[in-house]
Amino acid sequence: MDTARAFTSGIHLCVVYDQTKFPRFKEGSSVILRNVIKKPDGVAVTSNTKVFPCAEVSVPEHIVNQAKNLLHPPPAPTKTVSEALNSPPKERVSIKGTITQEEATRQVFVREERVNVKNIYIEDATSKCKVALWRSFAEKDIRPGDYVHITDVVINTFRNEVSLTTTSKTKITKTDCPPEVKVKQAVSGCVDGENMTFLLEDDTILTMPLELVEVALPNVEKEEIEINVAINKPAYQQYPVRGEERYEAGKAVDGRKSDLSSWGGQCTASESYKRTATWTTTNNERLPGVTYPDEYSDYVTSNLCEVEVYGE
């Protein structure tokens, strides 16, 4: 039995090995101990120890709270999976994440005792790791798809694999998965009735109610939304070329890519990010009612130039 002894000047841990003496150690009771074994982190009470009752010892409230925290420390700080995997050995950490995989419970021998252990895999936005659930934790009612908070785990390295393992202080609770925010860049978009469909940079399609887009672009008229989305997709003009000459140029926007050259040029698509474009005007025409990005600026006249289209 673990107890914490509080004095007027401090606290230390008291481990009681003699079960017959358990009743003498109650919260709030005051005792005198003789023949204890001194340890670096406290004392041990054995069958040779004498426990004497005594008058109540007055202990300051803050020391009583320290004693309670010694026996029941707060959970270790919650870290990302990536941070947890890089924590120092024996340092307790807590993690949150989604269970992506589980293995069957098996039995291993620990000090000549059969002990249950089960491996699960936890993933968050930063990384994925294996967590070994020992003893009663192996029977915990959790499964793949559950979002869990696992406290007070420690690093374990075996055969060059770094994983986490439960401790006697560990608690496992299922909790709600926090909303995940993903930022995607739209290459273009088109209005389709009451919805708007976006072509995203990873070549996927996203459809959402048009009214949400209108809320996001409060200063853009409904009929201008398509062109606004297209023009806000930047292409950076890097090296305008006329014959053998090269000119410095500001960043320009190729608003419509392959049509309406008066909006900044025509861009021929290829599989790489480099594009060959033919420019026909001396500056980017700014259209009324359109929100332009900060990098939208004038550029010099040229027949050929090399541009880089981002978001494709």
TrEMBL record:
Residue span(s) of domain Shieldin complex subunit 2 first OB fold: 113-198
Pfam annotation, one family: SHLD2_OB1
Superkingdom of the organism of origin: Eukaryota
The name this protein goes by in its record: Shieldin complex subunit 2 first OB fold domain-containing protein
